[in-house]
Amino acid sequence: MSEIKALRQAMKASGTNTAEAARALGVSWQTVHRWINGRNEPSPVIRRLLRAEIERLKAEAK
What we know:
By secondary structure, this protein is mainly α. It has a single domain, classed as Orthogonal Bundle (434 Repressor (Amino-terminal Domain)). Helix content is 74%, strand content 0%. It has four helices and no strands. α1 (3-14) packs parallel to α4 and α2 (18-25) packs across α3 (29-36). The radius of gyration is 10 Å and the shape is globular. It starts with a helix and ends with a helix. The relative contact order is 0.23.
């Protein structure tokens, strides 16, 4: 599963919105919105942060 699909699922499960996820990743909400809509891809550095954020959101949803 791609990081973006996993992020979307984790955000939904934890009730996190785009702005909150963006703040945690250090990017704008527009950037996260573009990733989710497939208009842009995160950089390799951000992908590592994304994986950590996905795990945090999953833990928060439990």
